[in-house]
Amino acid sequence: MMSGAPKDVGIRAMELYFPNSYVEESELEEFNKVSSGRYTVGLGVKEMGFCGVEEDVTSISLTVLSALLKNYQIDKSSVGYIIVGSETITDKSKGVFTALSQLFDKNNEIFGAECIGACYAGTSALFNAIDWIYANWQRERKYAVVVMADIAVYAPGPARCTGGAGAFAALIGPDAAVAFEEGLRSAVLKDVWDFYKPVCGLSTEYAFLNGQLSLESYLRMLDFAYENYKRKAFKLRGIGISLSDFQAVMLHCPFSKLVQKGFGRLVYKDYMEGLQDSLVEPELLDTINKNLWEEKALPNLFFNLRIGNMYTASLYAQLFGLFHSKRQKYSPAAYTEILAARETFTNGKKCENIFSYITLLQQ
Q: Any idea where the Hydroxymethylglutaryl-coenzyme A synthase C-terminal domain is (predicted)?
């Protein structure tokens, strides 16, 4: 076990879970009597996973964490912190992390916490886990576990096709295969009522959604976060950066066409700042954008296109697509109506040790 101050803190092992039930979006178009391609082409969705009555956010969290511990043979006594990021609650007081404690046998000396903040809650939980390692490693010598789990369900209507379900779990510690670069986080905080789930006097799991405002907020927050990120990167490194500096880019994915639109805005920003050397003529921008999208972002959406929106886990499902393509450096951004965040990761030589197991509940 490593001694001294922790270095290269990040993801040492990870696991993805998704339910075994799904619907073809093309069949959903037919069922809802909408034009062919409205979902599959207009939104860029292929399939949508959903949970049966036997599953809830607690059970899928237990499933993904149990698989993480088993598949990577993690010593349960080596874990000192559990944190869950989710916007799907089953109890207004008792957090999901308390249920996860039953997986650690006799190890009950574990700190725990829960993050709620729409889709950003997963990234918030991850940041908290990383910071816990930095703050406690020299004394505790214990790892952190982060779980992100959500079930996205919408009322009948235009948003229902953008549902989904899934859970992500990761072991956080020093000397990680996916190490987070210190000091290079960017955040934008804003209170927007585009998506919310009030609990007082209501018994529905459906969110109140202002679709147009939500799309605008996603793109606006992404703009601000990218600008802040560039400023911080220049302050730390003394050089400007662009998407060309990353071998892969991931954005939070409610549906792929929104990710593509957000990616295009980042390319355009780089172009306007003169950071894309290859963008010589404005008329070439669409072609360059398409090429960059297909090279750096689209391959990572393999699971998202087939599972749908997993809220907190949607960004991190793209890690699996990333490792399939064996890239070594990437930059993701997570969005919610409250906050957009961006963090740089540098993948070390231990990538082969983190290639994850995909857990699918068998009938």
A: 178-274
**What does 12-53 look like in DSSP terms, one character per residue?**
EEEEEEE-SEEEEHHHHHHHTT--TTTTTTTT---EEEE--T
Pairwise CA distance, residues 112 & 283, whole Å: 53
For the record, the structure tokens of 11 come out as: 């993801």
> Whole-angstrom Cα distance, residue 147 to residue 16?
10
Identity of the amino acid at 339: L
252 among known catalytic residues: yes
Interatomic CA distance for residues 18 and 1, integer angstroms: 33
Residue 69 backbone phi and psi in degrees, to 5: -65, -40
- Catalytically annotated residue among 15, 25, 29, 87: 87
Give yes or no for residue 12 having a pLDDT over 70: yes
| Whether 87 is catalytic | yes
Q: Give CA–CA dist 329/59, Å, rounded.
A: 33
Annotated binding site for CoA: 214, 257, 261
Yes or no: say if 93 and 123 are a contact pair by the CB < 8 Å rule. no
Mark whether 324 is an active-site residue: no
Q: What is the pLDDT of residues 114-148, one digit of tens each?
A: 999 999 999 999 999 999 999 999 999 999 999 99
**Paired sense of beta strands 164-173 and 143-152, if any:** antiparallel
Catalytic annotation, pick one of 51, 115, 119, 161: 119
- Please check whether the domain covering 10-177+356-360 is classified as CATH 3.90.220.20: no
Looking at residue 240, its pLDDT comes to 86
Residue-range domain boundaries for the chain: 10-177+356-360, 182-351
**Active-site entry in 25, 161, 252, 253:** 252
Q: Output the six-digit token pair for 241.
A: 């950066």
pLDDT for position 206: 87
Q: Which CATH superfamily is domain 182-351 in?
A: Thiolase/Chalcone synthase (3.40.47.10)
Residue among 162, 176, 178, 266 nearest 223 (CA): 266
Q: Which residue has the tokens 């997570």?
A: 334
Q: Tell me phi and psi for residue 120, to 5 degrees.
A: -70, -15
pLDDT digits 0-9 by tens, 100-111:
999 999 999 999
